[in-house]
Amino acid sequence: MNLSPNLIKHFADYLRLELSLSDNSVEAYCHDVHLFLQYLEAEKVSTDINAITQETIENFFAYLFDLNIGATSQARILSGLKSFWRYLTQEEIADKDPTLLISSPTLGRHLPEVLSYEEIQKMIDSIDLSQPTGHRNKAMIEVMYGCGLRVSELINLKISDIYKEDGFLRIFGKGSKERLVPIGDSSLKILFQYIEGARLHVNVKPKFTDTVFLNSRGTGLTRQMVFLIVKDLAEKNGINKAISPHTFRHSFATHLLEGGANLLAVQQMLGHASVSTTEIYTHISDELLRDTLTTYHPRFKK
Q1: For residues 68 and 269, is the Cβ–Cβ distance under 8 A?
Q2: What's the chain's average pLDDT?
Q3: What are the Cα distances from residue 116, in Å, to 7, 188, 253, 256, 258?
Q4: Which residue pairs from 6-13 have beta carbons closer than 8 angstroms and sit at least 24 positions apart in sequence?
Q5: CB within 8 A of 299, min separation 6: which ones?
Q6: Are 38 and 8 in contact (CB under 8 A)?
Q7: Which range (117-121, 253-257, 294-298) has the least confidence?
Q8: Cα 264 from Cα 239, distance rounded (Å)
């Protein structure tokens, strides 16, 4: 038998009727199994229940790690998969349990902290817009969290790479790989409040006329400067976590996946696949990427 949405539905019935779990718990467990199924399909791995091995499961968690999913979230997903295989072996659907020897501590590699949506909003709200750098810093946080950008992608963002009418940013990631990332109306509005407002009062050096985020000298920001801005905002708001610019990218991925977003869509938006200008996404449409953010990202919800 293959792992399929129909099998997951039977698992949900079992959790609800046999174990009397709450609807929230049932939804959480099934979400974890759906994530694993999405991974198998994306990687073209066999979905035959008895062909899935411990190595398959471990590769799945390595994949989640590459997507910046933290140890706590990984542990929760593992719990869901363990429950699923207990069901499969109990019902004699599976011959063996590949999750049996996988324990949560092996997933606990160090990753940046995850900020809650409330913590991120608190940081954004605390930015003093009366200061010359206020609108710039607010736009930076909005773009990092709203689009899941690396700090290098943020500081190298060009005005000519903002497709305002379409609601996309063209991003050049690691190895100069190019991708288009959706940006929400709220984040886009704040970004242009900076570009068409405070940025106009900066004496821009010729080399940086197309660079979005500038310092007071009219040149591009450094990674260190962005780190200091983020650290200062965290301290100002009493957030006692090891915060860095990457924390916003990490939170972007975690919030989307925990909200039920498509795994492959999140992978594409984070830039883990090659993308060309004319063929925007190889396996997934730009409409689905936008729908993923609109539906699952807390910054997009009205």
Answers
A1: no
A2: 85
A3: 33, 21, 12, 12, 12
A4: 7/49, 7/93, 8/33, 8/34, 8/37, 8/84, 11/84, 11/87
A5: 117, 142, 145, 146, 184, 186, 187
A6: no
A7: 294-298
A8: 31
**Which residue in the block uniquely carries the two structure tokens 């999750």?**
99
- Cα–Cα distance measured from residue 262 to residue 288, given in angstroms and rounded to the nearest whole number: 9
What are the beta bridge partners of residue 162?
A: 169
CATH for 5-107 is 1.10.150.130
Least confident of 84-88, 159-163, 181-185, 294-298: 294-298
- Top-level class of domain 117-296: mainly alpha
**Token couple for 182:** 């959706």
- Per-residue model confidence (pLDDT) at position 167: 92
Q: How far is CA 157 from CA 31, 80, 93, 260, 290, in A?
A: 34, 39, 51, 29, 20
Q: DSSP string covering 188-211, please?
A: HHHHHHHHTTGGGGS---GGGTTB
Amino acid identity at 229: I
Residue ranges of domains in the chain: 5-107, 117-296
Residues 48-95: tens digit of each pLDDT = 999 999 888 888 887 787 777 777 788 889 999 999 999 999 889 999
Contact of 252 with 148, CB cutoff 8 Å: yes
In the numeric block, the tokens 């429950």 are attached to 83
Task: Indicate which residues carry an active-site annotation.
Answer: 150, 174, 246, 249, 272, 281
H or E stretch including 168?
strand 168-172
What contacts 259, CB < 8 A, 6 or more positions away?
295, 296, 297, 298
Kindly provide the b/e burial profile for residues 131-149, where b requires at least 16 CB atoms within 10 angstroms of the residue's own CB.
eebebbbbbbbbbbbbbbb
